[in-house]
Structure formats: structure tokens, C-alpha cells
Amino acid sequence: MAARIESRKNPRLKEIRRLRRARGPEALLEGPKLVAEALRLGVPLETVLATPEFLATDEGRGLAPALDRPPLEAAPPLLREVCDADSPQGILAVARLERGGVEALPLVEDGVYLYLDGLQDPGNLGALARTAEAAGAAGMALAAGSVHPNHPRAMRASAGSLLRVPVAIDADPKAVAARLAKVAPRWLALAPREGADLWEADLAGALVLALGAEGPGLSEGVARRCEVEVSVPVAGGVESLNATVAAALVLFEIRRRRR
């Protein structure tokens, strides 16, 4: 019979609340889809918390036998307290998800990589990871000071991509360049209007697409490393696109040309 958590003062609940703000190797996976994908990939799950109502559903009955041990049961109000989502989906897991440095980036001939320079919004990070995977990107590197890829909101927004896409954290641009030297990528930066027209720009070969933080943009050191600036042509009256949307257009334009 599964153990049951009855109080919000339970030590395990307190620990999970702390993990919501942590930047370490533990990640909170909220919802059955993320938990199931972690199990499929062999990601170690340290704790699984679920409501009795979820475990009584067909989805819950299908997921529970795949766990190494029975989940801890908690009433919906207790699960809601430790979830980041406004509408929890009945199950949460604490996963051990180590993130490495630049050595985590695979060397892919003509590969496309994202370099995120101080990105702060976890939802944007998750969306970028999902887009990068869909467009066939080889990996992502996050500069020091960027939001951590294990942030629960980033994990949810990625819809599982942050479990699958190679991600390097605390990645200095010089170290990224050294790691990828064998594939010799060119570095690209997004510019609102004054860059080369995306539809005509040279996008051949290995590439690193550098994106800056919301507002400040790229740091000076990263900007200097970029050999090319590209802009998405937009209709008059629109100053610029959201960086995540613009990055998606660049990534899929690269994919379109290489198909």
C-alpha cells in the first residue's frame, strides 16, 4: 500500500518546495507526460507524488507500475502547494537530471546550436528548447547567469525537450567555440532590422545562433564573436519580433534549406 502524506509540514513536501527555487541537479517534473517521458529515457526519479484521484484514472493505473516504487499519495491541495503550475495534473516527480558544461554539446557536422546569453525567462527557455528540437538543432548552451534548464516552468514549456536536447550550462562563449572547433561553426546574431535579410543570408555549414537576454540583448563579448547579423523582414509598423519567435523563424529557415 502506498504511503500517504497528510500534512503540509511533511519534510518531503518542504524539500520539494525548496527545489522549486534551486539550481542544482534535481528537477521537478509536473504532469504525467513529463513523468512518462523521464521513465522512457531512464532518468532516475527520486520521489514521485500523486493524488489518489490521479492514480485511480486509466493514465494513473498505466503509469504507476512503471515506477521503481509506489508513489507517495497526497491530497490535491497538498500537491497544489508544491507544484509550480496553476493547474496541477495529479502527479509530480523529483528527477535527478545532471547538467554538464560544454562537454555536453555533441559535435555534429553542419550542426546548428543555440547560445543563450543571460536568458532569464524559464517559459522562453522551454519554448526555445522545444523549437530547437523540432527544427533539428544539435544542442543548446546557456551562459552563466541564465535561467537553469531544470526550472519547473522551463521543463513544462519544453514539453519534454529539455529531457532530450543536449544542454550545456555556465557555458563561456570561448569554451563553446573551443568545444565546437572541430565543426567550425559561424556565430550568428539576431538584429531587429539592420542585419542581413534572413531569406537571403548565407546559412550554410555549422552555425551557432546567439540570443541575448530580454531587453539587454547580447553581451559585448558574445556580440563581438558573431560574424553575421540576420534580421527577419517584417511589415511596416512592427519594430521587431519576440526573440523566441524570431529564433524559431531562423531555425526553421535553416531546416527548410537543408531538406
Q: Distance between termini? A: 53 Å
Going by helix content, strand content and strand pairing, the class is: alpha/beta
Discrete helix count: 11
Order of helices and strands: EHEHEHHEHEEHEHHEHEEEHEH
What's the mean pLDDT score?
Answer: 92
| Spatial arrangement of strands, main beta sheet | 8-7-6-11-9-12-10
Number of strands: 12
- Principal-axis shape equals elongated
Rg calc? 20 Å
What proportion of the residues form beta strands (DSSP E)?
Answer: 15-25%
Helix content: 25-40%
Low-pLDDT ranges:
none
Biggest pleated sheet: 7 strands, parallel
Keywords:
259 residues; five-stranded mixed β-sheet; alpha/beta; seven-stranded parallel β-sheet; elongated; single chain; 11 helices
What's the arrangement of secondary structure elements?
Layout: E1 4-5, H1 11-19, E2 26-30, H2 32-41, E3 45-50, H3 52-55, H4 58-63, E4 72-74, H5 76-82, E5 91-96, E6 112-117, H6 122-134, E7 139-142, H7 152-158, H8 161-164, E8 167-168, H9 173-179, E9 186-190, E10 196-197, E11 207-212, H10 220-225, E12 228-231, H11 243-258
